[in-house]
Amino acid sequence: MKKSLAPLVLAASMLTLPALATGQDTPAVVTAVYQCRTLTDDAARLACFDKAAADLEQAQNARTLSFGDEDAFPRFEGAELKSKIAAVSANQAGRYVITLADGT
Question: What's the domain range around 40?
Answer without folding.
Answer: 6-71
